[in-house]
Amino acid sequence: MRSVFLTQQLHIKNLFIFLILFFISSLVYASRDDSSFPKTGNFALSSSQQPGPLVGFGQNIVDKNQKIFFLLADDFKNSGSQFIDIAPSFLYGITDNLSVYFNMPIAADYRSGSQHAAGLEDSSVQFEYAFYNKQNNQFVDQATVVTNMTFPTGSSKKDPPTGFGSPSFFLGATFNRMYTNWFGFTSYGTVLTTSRNNTQFGNQFLYQAGFGRNIFSIEDKWIFAWMVEVDGQYSEKNRMNGIIDPNSGGNMITTTPSLWISSQHLIIQVGVGIPIAQHLFGNQPRNNYSLISSVGFTF
């Protein structure tokens, strides 16, 4: 089993190395500016309505004063547990290169064995800044930095917990490229937790990449696209009441195919997350799948 896991890790590592080199080379060889893109494919609508990741963080740069309300729902299942979330959120463009994103997730139904919990999860405010924008006659590139702070509006005392019980901080970076028909992204970040009452959930490290293709578009009306993203998360072990929990933390890599549909004022995205590599510390249930959907209204 260990050799299989190491082989999976090697394949994923090679994939991410390839994507990193591809995106770095795109920065180096980006050519002359040319804003005259035909309004077709992924460019049939404005940038806020163009395809993006479902699970991956960031890449939420919109025009100044533009507003988008999102409602995300997911159903996460593993052996013996099920977690259903509803997350209303609001995105606002402070400038053309700086956005703020407010998120208030709700644990609709958390079940682990005979235990049940529901209520608010940890809320957050996130800022994203596009420090690099490049456009030529073939594609558009954008690189951003992302930072957020999460507030302990959830509870670490519930079983299952609905929050960390103390503030946490996030710092990450993204890069995406958009062609008329194809698009891709990669992103990397870390969640740094804090302690309260001698309890601290493990820090998390995220590594993500994905690509997709336009299926069909109508100028100024509709975009239909598919994408596949690979999302990795390494979590350190938790410390509960001053004692390290050996049955916590680990590394998980999930692939999520999804379908994107957007119009001038509507965004719909649905996908299924399937674990492709799991190395969980101690005795923990293995993850089975996740169902994810997101609806956005632009105004």
Question: Which properties best describe this structure?
Answer:
16 strands; Porin; 299 residues; two-stranded antiparallel ribbon; twelve-stranded antiparallel barrel; mainly beta; 9% helix; 56% strand; disordered N terminus
Report what the structure shows.
The protein contains one helix and 16 strands. The chain is mainly beta and 299 residues long. The chain has one domain (2-298): Porin. The protein has a twelve-stranded antiparallel beta barrel. A hairpin with a 2-residue loop joins strand 4 (106-112) and strand 5 (115-120). Residues 1-12 and 25-34 have low confidence and may be disordered.
Count of the separate structural domains: 1
SSE arrangement, N to C = HEEEEEEEEEEEEEEEE
Q: What can be said about the biggest beta sheet?
A: 12 strands, antiparallel, barrel
Separation, N- and C-terminal Cα atoms = 51 Å
Number of helices: 1
Shape: globular
> What share of the residues lie within helices?
under 10%
Task: Name the structural class.
Answer: mainly beta
Strand content: over 45%
The stretches of 5 or more residues where confidence is low (pLDDT under 50) are 1-12, 25-34
Calculate the mean pLDDT score and round it: 88
Count the beta strands. Answer: 16
Give the radius of gyration: 20 Å
| Name of the top-level CATH class | Mainly Beta
Strand order of the largest sheet: 1-2-3-6-7-8-9-10-11-14-15-16
